[in-house]
Amino acid sequence: MKLVRTNGKGLDALAALTARGAAPYQRVLPQARRIVDAIRRGGDPALLRLRAKLDRIPSQTPLRIPQIEMRLAWESTPTPLQQALKIATHNIRVFSLRQRPKNFDIKPAPGVTTGQRVVPLASVGCYIPSGRYPLPSTLLMTAIPAQVAGVERIVAVSPHPAKETLAAAYLLGISEFYRVGGAHAVAALAYGTETIPAVDKIVGPGNAWVTAAKKLVAFDCSIDMLAGPTEAVITSETGDPDLIAADLVAQAEHDPDTLAIFITTSPALAKSVTVAATKAARGNKTATAAVTNRGLAVVARTLDEARDLTNRIAPEHLTVDTAADLAWVRNAGSVFIGRWSAQPLGDYVSGPNHTLPTSGLARTRGGLSVLDFVKLITVQEYSEAGVRQFGSAALRLAEAEGLTAHAQAIRARGVHD
Q1: Which of 82, 122, 177, 386 is placed for a possible disulfide with 156 were both Cys, Cβ 3.0 to 4.6 Å?
Q2: Is 211 found in the same domain as 281?
Q3: Are 158 and 237 in the same domain?
Q4: Among this protein's residues, is 317 annotated catalytic?
Q5: Where are the alpha helices (DSSP H) in 298-374?
Q6: Which of 164, 176, 184, 317 is catalytic?
Q7: Same domain, 183 and 315
């Protein structure tokens, strides 16, 4: 982990590290396009052929995972892990319930009623990675908000789901789970095949092929976001170097391209964190690669500079010292406050979603939430008296825009200049 100062070439080093450059998925877009097109044209036969080739699953293996397999996975799960899954499920569900938007009606004038109706999406596909690590937590984080939103059909896909992931599906009552992954799974969800009916939206992280496919289908099937490598930033003046290093290394073990950055005005603390992070990553090949190649301890000249750098990075995960720091945080996926708030707690059991924006997308959106699974339909109702209230204003605006038919529709209801 390198230590740099912003009064030298440190800003250049930080800019180079956080520029993100060409996203990994862009390199595989041409190949992903061919896969997506093949599934769109070829349906199940193409899906099974590509699954055999890319997922190494025999073509005779059914796409759909039987309910009994999920039930047996749950029953064979050790009781402590069952309890952990239940705790996580409870906290995610409670948090999601508080996020759920509400219907409302207002009366801006006599005879005029406006409002909104919250309508869940009809179907959602949850992509659950099963590569370097099994991720049952991702199934919880994607499916539970959809359930709370009221989505009727929730589909999960994963090429090699771990027993723990199948157990989580059984716990949540997910009955539609397909053993398939990669760009071909995304295409099947987006366009449908003989076995897998299309969904309205695809959510969940994945590798470069999954992300490329999500980008390619995004105009035909809604997606949550394009996921990049994990990001962890800790901005602290008073933190414990061992705990700071532990959180940076925890996120770094996700991917060798993980961004792991510590920002402070204290040179001594920065030095201690670099030493602690290198030590903590020892023996963990993935974390060591990330901390070595994409790890940085930045010594800022002032607190304001440290805070500005943090917001410019717009990290996926951010740890700060106290709740008062929330006043300056503008761009972050999820914020952790203080030494006891380990970032992995948020990955599993806190309740807020761990599917978070990366690659600077935290400048424009937050993490996955119930809002991703509903649509807000606005409504309006006028009486004759209501038209008299607002009709003349609408008529003037229509005429100003030169939309004569708009104006006539209003005049037809008895409104005059």
Answers
A1: 177
A2: no
A3: no
A4: yes
A5: 303-313, 343-348
A6: 317
A7: no
